[in-house]
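Hi there,

I know you've been waiting on this one. I reran it after we fixed the sequence typo, so this is the corrected version. Both the input and the resulting structure follow.
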Amino acid sequence: SGLDPAGPYFEGTPPEVRLDPSDANFVDIIHTNAAHFPAIGLGMYNTTGHLDFYPNGGSVMPGCTDLTPEMKHNDFEAKIADATVIGTCHHSRSHEFYFESILYPSGYLGYPCETYKSFKSGDCFPCPKEGCPMMGHYADRFPAKLKRLNQKYFLNTAADPPFASWRQKVFIKLSGVKKTRGDINLIFHDTEGNRKEYEIASGALSEDEVYTKYLDVEINPKNTKKIEFLWNKTIFTLLWARLGAEIVNIIHGED
């Protein structure tokens, strides 16, 4: 298991001098600080295993980018800060993800996709019929683990431990009024009393439109107790209109 294998001096080198799929029966990689020049990164960007996982795109990890703001007085200092204090945070996420994946075996599902942009837009959801592998400790349980070289697998994680998240596709159709302004949120509750709120739409709302959003929810679907629909009406709206959900459809896996 390669935990953000080093990029400087290794990127683009022959397989004989770096980690590659021939080094073991099965090689899985977690890329967390990969970057192409002139961007500064400590990890390797190119695929270098049987299964290459790129959480959050593989370069910048949530929860790391708000560190040491006082160091960023200009663009040059920002790059130096990212490469040292902050870069180390991105780089270290690889082993933190691996540790947490042992306890959360379903929370790190990687989707095969060409680019992170396509993944974020939902082009690679749901998983293909052969399934998706789990990043981290349970990657070797993927039946097709040796069949696809140079395939990138993308997923998003949370900013804080345990970092696990479950991708879900949400459809909402509204009813009640023709048009109004405000925002629509969903609140996920689990059996342990945890709650997470996610925005689905904001601004002009219409009952003629179906709102679709891909969410990376930090509440395990197996432990979800309740999902709450919440409409926040814009302040100073003259019409105290009622607005509700006619249809709410949430897809995760086969559910």
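Quick highlight: The chain has two domains: 1-164, 166-252.

Best,
R. S.
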